[in-house]
Write a structure and sequence with these properties.
4 helices, alpha+beta, Tetrahydropterin Synthase, Chain A, 2 domains, single chain
Length: about 160
């Protein structure tokens, strides 16, 4: 009798598993069909009344390929390194033009970043919104020299400082 109990539990468990599968599989198919119907109804509404998703994009975001590394100098020694990642908000269709002049942009951006570091922009609470807004504005001014009105914003994607 003691050897029969595990076998009974095995058979009962197997029966419950098979029964659960039979019950749940058809329910899942019905749910999938309901989702397909909802999706097709949504597609019909979008075709009849195009929404904001169908409007042409007014801008694109281009991530500059490499990070910017800016040394922070104090008392004629490098006291920290600041690493930034930048992106540009540009009008659609000028991606290739931006990447063609990226070396020139990087040079100008680095000069702005070095100037910012030299006036103490990366000292203390360098992530304050006023401080970063001034940096964004200076970077945008330089970007507009090469790209004109095709660029509308310079976005600071990440900024970190490592003290030496």
């Amino acid at each position: 009798m003691g050897k029969l109990i595990p076998v009974v539990f095995l058979v009962v468990g197997l029966a419950i598993g098979v029964g659960a599968r039979l019950v749940l599989v058809p329910a899942k198919k019905e749910a999938d069909q309901g989702e397909v119907q909802k999706t097709s109804e949504k597609d019909k509404k979008e075709k009849a009344d195009p929404g904001k998703d169908d409007a042409p994009a007014t801008h694109e975001y281009l991530k500059l390929t490499k990070q910017f590394v800016v040394p922070v100098v104090s008392e004629d020694e490098i006291s920290a390194l600041v690493v930034l990642s930048l992106s540009l908000e540009v009008r659609p269709g000028i991606t290739e033009a931006v990447y063609e002049i990226e070396p020139k942009l990087r040079d100008r951006f680095l000069q702005v970043l070095f100037d910012h570091a030299n006036i103490g922009g990366f000292d203390g609470a360098f992530t304050q919104s006023d401080n970063l807004a001034a940096l964004r504005e200076a970077l945008l001014e330089v970007a507009k020299m090469d790209l004109g009105q095709d660029v509308s914003q310079v976005l600071i994607m990440s900024v970190s400082r490592q003290d030496t």
